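To assess whether ligand presence alters the predicted conformation, the chain was also submitted together with copper (II) ion. Input:
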Amino acid sequence: MLALFYIFIAVAIGVSFWQITRIMNFRGIIATDEDNEKQGKYALGFLAFLYAMMIYCLIAMNVIMLPEAASIEGEHDDNLFNITFWLIGIVQFGMQFLIFFFTYKYRGNKNNKALFYADSHKLELIWTTIPAVTIVLLIGYGLWAWNNIMYVGDDENPIVIEVYSQQFRWDARYAGEDNQLGLGNVNFIKGINTMGVDMSDPSAQDDKQVTELYLPKGKKVLFKFRSQDVLHSAYMPHFRAQMNCVPGMVTQFAFTPKYTTAEMRQNSEVIAKTEGINKIRKANGEDPYEFDYLLLCNKICGASHYNMQMKITVVEEEEYNKWLSEQKTLAQAIK
Ligand SMILES: [Cu+2]
């Protein structure tokens, strides 16, 4: 395989030398009006091809996009994405036209004479101010959205959950009655205490370690992240939230789930995407898939990185309270 690669590189170098010597021979040739005419039309043809590809990609790639945000804070991510997408889309549509149409319009002609045009202060002012203001507004909205999920006031009284990453699994712990997580440290890892909770800490007694996440709809949840070994990244795509899990420090984000898992399964976008996925799974002879929220690792952290996930179920508050009360506290589990 490697030999093939070296042969490919040798051939590529050979071809480029050959092309360079060919270009050298063209130095003495000057384009005729007929050449310019032809090249100008090629530019127009390329413009049409570019537009066709853009429209095709917009339609064909839409199936791999995520459904609407399932958290209240995530709506702003979708807004930012849509505004940026349309802004860039429209500007680039117009810019491509100007580039290729003018290439055609001002194609070389023996009778034309180039005009010397130094600068225009008015034009400079316009094309500096408009992008600057637009970018400041977009970044301002982005920073606001970032603060919205990063900083949570105590008065908001969020449910506190710790998510602990290691090669290659997630563990999670609810803060319990006192809504206060007991201290965690890698030195305390022993037996079923896989998150290294310091059991001499009073606030650790009522903490509850779980194998999957249950979240109540409409209540703010604050996630605290730790990592045991390498960089991982806690990614909850449907809630539009992601944060690095860094060994030696605690990171966080918060959001409010907007739809229960059951409601999301009824969402027309989700139904269409699920059907698409199941068509592929059926062709591969695999079992059908049903929509679930997921926590995934979004940092290439090692060989089984792809397998690092945890199911998240969003339910009504009443059901959440019932589920949580059924979970054992760490003190009970470790005894
Ligand atoms: Cu990972």
